[in-house]
Amino acid sequence: MQPIRERIVVKAGAGWMGMGRGAGSTALGFFQILPVFLCIFPAATSQCKILKCNSEFWAATSGSHHLGTEEAPEFCTALRTYAHCTRRTARTCRGDLAYHSAVHGIDDLMVQHNCSKDGPTSQPRLRTLPPGDSQERSDSPEICHYEKSFHKHSAPPNYTHCGLFGDPHLRTFTDSFQTCKVQGAWPLIDNNYLNVQVTNTPVLPGSLATATTKLTIIFKSFQECVDQKVYQAEMDELPAAFTDGSKNGGDKHGANSLKITEKVSGQHIEIQAKYIGTTIVVRQVGRYLTFAVRMPEEVVNAVEDRDNQGLYLCLRGCPLNQQIDFQAFRSAQGTEGRARRKGPSLPSSPEFFTYETAMAKCREKLPVEDLYFQSCVFDLLTTGDVNFTLAAYYAFEDVKMLHSNKDKLHLYERTRELGPGNTAPLGYPRALPALWVALVCLSRCWSVFL
After folding, report:
1. Within 10 Å of residue 13's Cβ, how many Cβ atoms?
2. Which end of the chain has fewer CB atoms at under 10 Å, N or C?
3. Is pTM beyond 0.90 here?
């Protein structure tokens, strides 16, 4: 199989650097990379809908690669509609770098194309697929089917699994199992083919327990197989399509090698990326999201600089200062458990669990007392939300479906390699992790645009 894959890069004349005078027909390049930019810099809160505005503009202008004089009025109408959308979400996007960058980009394009800020706007139009579109094709090139690209007598690929669920618990590609804090936005996967980022928020206002409320997946453009695609799920919103409304890899010949399938409406979707041999499962269980992936080792390790992939959680695990010592929690839960549940209640009025009642509840779904069982108990003690029992149950069901080694389905020893003085506290430090994530995001921004 060809190891060389296309990377998402910003060309000098197509990105933000090309937004000055004379950008001309290449100015739309900004909006070709804007979906990536918006996902690298997610909204500070889930109410910021800048991604939705972008996808509507992208749908309205898809196919407009060169702007002739006759197309200028239509393009100006699309820009005004986009600007109107950003104004509607301005209050909830304050302080969001992606939002402010989009606003400045729109203003620049309006000047370049002599668009008036006053004028007609239009409803966003969905991108229509041409007759015989690749969504119906079954003759994808061999390069777009990972397993078929291997020679008949070569060794089959080795598949690995990563999963994130609950409050939150991480199983890495190397079968390390950790319980982590990771409040805010964190990258699960960051390689040459796709990026996955999750956002974890407190289960209760002021709570120490967090869970996943937002998930963004970027599938990078690859040869004749797929166009760049972005999938985004949020709490109470699990779409069965990419952000541009499509369900496959676009207009390329092998686009059918990337497909979204809805298993249970609003609760369970599956994404098949055959061109990289990858299967992704996203669920909403209760109010929160779970994530599971099956991926070949070759794809897992396809990174530009492995030594600097410290925030690739599925590969590296959680940083030591973000890991929770489960044994220490068990010894402290008698004194801290009740304090964690003080304050406003969830709409579903969480129950009170002792260690014994939590074990009994988890045993109903997870009869084997492995780490999934222990995670279930942990989550009931920290949240009181019985839906976390189902989150652990479905996480293990996904392991059974996605893990290639059936002897490693159950894990019994929690992974936490700590040196002297590195014991992670039970409290959730807020300012430092938030600052850390912000600095990482900014560094990525400059590395992309400089």
Report:
1. 15
2. C
3. no
